[in-house]
């Protein structure tokens, strides 16, 4: 199967399961068989103005012109990579407000869409937290939020937030820089990049980032009990 484009990855109709205990696997999660197509496809644009693929396809760039990581789209093959997300499926879920676990509609009430984020230390939180939080995890529906609380090993200190205005902010990924001999070197640390940044031509996006605005921290257990 060809690599999925950044805006149209295959989104399964529901969560897959894995292992003898049939653990639910979020549709946005990557699988080990979903190999990346980066090197040697990545090169310097012929005009020297940034990055390009040697044979670019429609959908390799988003509407802001940012280049996206190519990745095979074969959910269910191999082992689930719970800490990683598939670029195309993550972006599709985020743009369409789909649940990151089952790909159905994410939970939305008068207080906004439901997101689960990791708790940060109080001393690191600005006074208006969680307004302005940058989030790479797509929203979630209530039944799948209950599943995540029970099964997700990486959701150690979850905070349930409803956002009335989750605004597309930019992307998460990595920078590449040209060398004196016309090669590319990757900047060691991944980073967040806001749309409109002057370094966007030298960036490969892996995940879409939204800024959560008009937020309310909710009691998820109470909402689940009332559902």
Can you offer a commentary on this structure?
The protein is mainly β and 227 residues long. The protein has one domain. Helix content is 12%, strand content 37%. The chain contains 3 helices and 17 strands. Strands 8, 11, 12, 13, 14, 15, 16 and 17 form an 8-stranded mixed beta sheet that branches. Strands 1-9-5 form a 3-stranded antiparallel beta sheet, with no helix packed on it. Strands 2-3 form a two-stranded antiparallel ribbon. A hairpin with a 6-residue loop joins strand 6 and strand 7. Helix 2 packs across helix 3. The radius of gyration is 18 Å and the shape is globular. 38% of the residues are buried. The N terminus is likely disordered.
Set out the fold topology.
Layout: E1 3-4, E2 16-18, E3 23-25, E4 29-31, E5 36-37, E6 42-44, E7 51-53, E8 67-68, E9 70-72, E10 80-85, H1 87-96, E11 108-109, E12 112-118, E13 133-135, H2 142-151, E14 158-178, E15 184-186, E16 191-194, E17 203-217, H3 220-226
Ends: how far apart?
Answer: 40 Å
Tertiary shape: globular
Instruction: Work out the helicity level.
Output: 10-25%
What's the count of strands? 17
- Poorly predicted segments: 1-6
Largest sheet, in brief, is: 8 strands, mixed
Beta content comes to 35-45%
Helical run tally: 3
Task: Please write the string of helix (H) and strand (E) elements.
Answer: EEEEEEEEEEHEEEHEEEEH
């Amino acid at each position: 199967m060809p690599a999925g484009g950044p805006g149209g990855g295959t989104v399964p109709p529901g969560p897959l399961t894995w292992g003898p205990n049939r653990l639910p696997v979020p549709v946005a999660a990557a699988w080990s068989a979903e190999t990346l197509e980066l090197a040697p496809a990545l090169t310097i644009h012929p005009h020297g103005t940034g990055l390009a693929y040697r044979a670019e396809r429609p959908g390799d760039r988003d509407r802001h012109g940012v280049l996206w990581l190519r990745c095979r789209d074969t959910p269910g093959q191999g082992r689930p990579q719970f800490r990683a997300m598939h670029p195309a499926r993550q972006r599709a879920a985020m743009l369409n407000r789909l649940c990151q676990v089952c790909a159905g509609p994410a939970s939305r009430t008068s207080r906004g869409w439901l997101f689960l984020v990791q708790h940060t230390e109080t001393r690191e939180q600005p006074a208006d937290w969680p307004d302005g939080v940058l989030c790479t995890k797509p929203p979630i529906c209530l039944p799948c939020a209950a599943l995540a609380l029970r099964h997700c090993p990486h959701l150690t200190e979850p905070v349930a937030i409803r956002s009335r205005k989750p605004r597309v902010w930019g992307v998460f990924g990595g920078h590449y820089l040209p060398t004196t001999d016309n090669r590319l070197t990757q900047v060691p640390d991944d980073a967040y990049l806001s749309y409109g940044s002057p370094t966007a031509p030298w960036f490969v996006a892996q995940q879409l980032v939204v800024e959560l605005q008009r937020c309310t921290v909710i009691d998820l257990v109470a909402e689940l009990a009332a559902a």
